[in-house]
């Protein structure tokens, strides 16, 4: 086991929260997953919608153009992407929207490797691109936010109901392995009629804070936001913590720093948003019509690809229903 993680657990009287664990496993300067891995793509650990097909990025670009029109076509405004990954979505949006407007591009990225990738990809775009760490440092002007598979990466805490609420924490067991444990939690309370023995509630404080800041920024400056992620509208009362490595599910507590750890996003936190499924969202912004256009001028092989991508992005048994969208206007 990594000594720095052992030290962290020992310093915290023998147990750490899942959020502390994720913070270490994902963001630790030396060992954190996002600090030294290039996670996205066939050679990485997982694939995201912008990497599957331009059908996705083009449909998001349509949404951006329509929202910009709704804002009164401002001459000066900011387009923000939270967690831009390989930079595919933002560079496609810049390319597609160029004939409508130019704007300030602000990117939130914690990974130095992905930031370099984004810099390379956006070099040719001739856009005014800057990288930020805080929403309250953004320029005071209308702002359109986009976040695809960003909120799932943020650290969560889990609480489990037995006769009382307990926090699910992480310890080092006698055989020197990491293990989950329940510790009574006096300061957590959650009441609804659905919690039964073993019910799990997940709390994502970082996501709440970021969403709160984003909403405040839009309230003061005008703008809107589109959040897309795998998640739920009604609480599932089970653990959604998961890890992947090389496109396969992996044990959350082993190979720390080499695996991507995430959880399903609780869409009920996005107050005042219109919540929908990725399937409904992509259909209402014209993904089917766009694929029909592309099919007309494609080879058999390209046509196969278009149909497969459309199916993967919108089918209820694949990404279509698992992924939700939240729009704040
Ligand atoms: N949106 C991209 C990438 C999704 S992966 C896509 O759809 O392909 C998650 C992204 O969020 C990565 O770019 C990751 O480095 C970034 N990220 C994760 N946690 C972050 C944090 N706390 N602050 C800023 N960026 C973060």
Features:
binds S-adenosyl-L-homocysteine, 329 residues, 5-stranded antiparallel beta sheet, single chain, alpha/beta, globular, 12 helices, 8-stranded mixed beta sheet
Briefly characterize the structure:
The chain is of the alpha/beta class. It has 12 helices and 16 strands.
Explain what this protein looks like in three dimensions.
The protein has 329 residues and is an alpha/beta fold. Helix content is 36%, strand content 24%. It has helices at 3-11, 18-27, 33-36, 49-52, 54-70, 88-97, 112-122, 205-221, 278-284, 287-296, 300-314, 319-322; strands spanning 16-17, 78-82, 104-108, 128-132, 143-148, 157-161, 165-172, 178-184, 200-203, 223-232, 242-245, 248-250, 260-262, 265-266, 274-277, 323-328. The strands form three sheets. Strands 2, 3, 4, 5, 10, 14, 15 and 16 form an eight-stranded mixed beta sheet that branches. Strands 1, 6, 7, 8 and 9 form a five-stranded antiparallel beta sheet that branches. The mean pLDDT is 96. The protein contains twelve helices and 16 strands. It binds S-adenosyl-L-homocysteine (SAH). S-adenosyl-L-homocysteine binds next to helix 4.
């Amino acid at each position: 086991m990594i000594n720095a993680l052992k030290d962290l657990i020992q310093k915290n009287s023998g147990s750490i929260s899942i959020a502390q664990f994720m913070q270490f496993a994902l963001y630790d300067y030396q060992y954190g997953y996002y600090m030294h891995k290039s996670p996205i793509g066939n050679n990485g650990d997982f694939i995201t919608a912008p990497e599957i097909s331009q059908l996705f990025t083009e449909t998001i670009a349509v949404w951006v153009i329509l929202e910009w029109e709704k804002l009164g076509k401002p001459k000066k405004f900011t387009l923000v992407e939270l967690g831009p990954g390989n930079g595919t979505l933002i560079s496609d949006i810049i390319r597609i929207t160029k004939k409508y407007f130019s704007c300030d591009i602000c990117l939130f990225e914690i990974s130095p490797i992905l930031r370099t990738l984004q810099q390379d990809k956006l070099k040719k775009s001739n856009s005014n691109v800057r990288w930020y760490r805080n929403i309250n440092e953004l320029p005071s002007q209308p702002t359109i936010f986009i976040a695809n598979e960003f909120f799932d990466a943020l650290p969560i805490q889990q609480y489990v109901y037995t006769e009382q609420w307990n926090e699910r924490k992480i310890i080092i067991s006698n055989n020197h392995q990491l293990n989950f444990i329940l510790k009574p939690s006096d300061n957590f309370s959650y009441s609804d009629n659905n919690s039964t023995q073993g019910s799990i509630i997940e709390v994502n404080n970082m996501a709440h804070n970021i969403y709160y800041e984003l909403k405040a920024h839009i309230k003061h400056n005008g703008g809107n936001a589109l959040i897309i992620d795998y998640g739920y509208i009604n609480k599932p009362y089970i653990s959604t913590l998961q890890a992947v490595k090389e496109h396969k599910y992996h044990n959350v507590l082993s190979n720390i720093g080499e695996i991507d750890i995430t959880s399903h996003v609780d869409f009920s936190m996005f107050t005042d948003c219109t919540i929908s499924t990725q399937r409904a969202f992509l259909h209402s912004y014209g993904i089917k019509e766009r694929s029909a256009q592309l099919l007309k001028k494609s080879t058999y092989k390209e046509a196969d690809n278009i149909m497969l991508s459309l199916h993967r992005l919108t089918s209820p048994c694949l990404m279509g229903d698992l992924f939700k969208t939240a729009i704040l206007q």
